[in-house]
């Protein structure tokens, strides 16, 4: 076994490996936005029923995270790979096929059969994803104790996340959407909106999910082989199985301002951006008539995220993680406010251009925030130990994930209900919606992005409390405690 003096120095292998881990996660996670569109457009579930089903499975999803997180923290068995890597491997094996279970194409089944397929498929997928993702997120704090190196890992996790999202975002719409023609080969045009109708090919979604499961598994295996822990996962004794108290852990989490600030910011991001994914797809299909190109447009809007990646270490060293992320969140808020202009523009070409400019400003600010957001949770784990004397990597991260997933469930559920209230009728498909409904989708998308930007900025600026000076004090005192215990 390697000693502290023989462990290889932190470097590129660690950063690339950690990026591959989130690439693997996002080969599954990036399908979440497609889930709602698949069941709404292809399976034609009514918006109210789909909203209810989505809320039920996401509540279970959220509850599932702290259960698995507490299991990891309380697990004292000796695994050949170590407990974190063992749990990740088990979850990765499940994700080989689990993602496709949510996309079993059966549009002619009864409503009850569809509901059961949705629930069972989603629960199995969620269990596998959580088993891999919770220990993966927690182990950032074990790879290195250095704040700057943690910021780099967070940045590279964002790189892995972006590449894991970019391919599905860009390619999936082109593969699963198809323009509609009549029996004579003439385009089918919606007379009210003036755009050519488009239809969703559900069988292709199922095949794509299987392929993504294989790619994700390969990325996980490479990550497990390349990752090196420099903090012993058993070096700081946490609660054993008899002493572990999940209620106390939740209580400590609510007292942990660092964890709460990072969590509220992440919830705002998901309540806005992720909840907007279905409405955005419907907007492109019904208002712009460009569902096939929607992914490319979204990708162009978020490419500015990459602008700050080469400079994030310098930004963090000079200003601090909280400070840099606050600036980014403020820029995102400005971009989201500008987005309210495009529904007012009569020319759809100009409206699409304004939408892309607003999205680019939003994405530029989001680039700064996402580069350091995962390092927030590693520091929040340290903050928990600093304030309460217990190191609960799995628990702190999984409770954070619990609230993120609540946002992922509540947000899309509410948005689906709002879409129904704004006139969307599932039975008509995307090709049969009215101009009023298509325009309402534009306002809904702008409102969701604005909500996301405003709440995220408030969370990082006023709730998250580990500014540069406080972080330096915390890191120094924790190092002194460990030196005293050695």
Structure characterization notes:
By secondary structure, the protein is mostly helical. The protein has one domain (12-226, 255-485): Growth Hormone, Chain: A (Up-down Bundle). It is built from 18 helices and 2 strands. It has helices at 12-29, 32-42, 47-74, 83-98, 111-138, 140-143, 147-176, 202-226, 246-255, 257-274, 276-288, 294-302, 312-319, 321-338, 348-388, 393-421, 435-463, 468-485; strands spanning 177-179, 198-200. Strands 1-2 form a two-stranded antiparallel sheet. α3 (47-74) runs antiparallel to α16 (393-421), α10 runs antiparallel to α15 (348-388) and α10 packs antiparallel against α17. It is globular, with a radius of gyration of 23 Å. It starts with 11 loop residues before the first helix and ends with a helix. The relative contact order is 0.16. The model is unreliable at 236-242 (pLDDT under 50).
CATH architecture: Up-down Bundle
Strand count: 2
| Gap between N and C termini | 19 Å
Mind describing the biggest β-sheet?
2 strands, antiparallel
Beta-strand residue percentage: under 5%
Give the CATH topology.
Answer: Growth Hormone, Chain: A
What is the average per-residue confidence, as pLDDT, rounded to a whole number? 83
Give the number of helices: 18
> For the record, what is the CATH homologous superfamily label?
MFS general substrate transporter like domains
The first-level CATH class is given as: Mainly Alpha
Strand order of the largest sheet: 1-2
- H/E element string? HHHHHHHEEHHHHHHHHHHH
Helix content: over 70%
When the domains are counted, the total is 1
Q: How does the helix and strand content classify structurally? A: mainly alpha
Which stretches of 5+ consecutive residues score pLDDT under 50?
236-242
Rg, nearest Å: 23 Å
Outline: globular
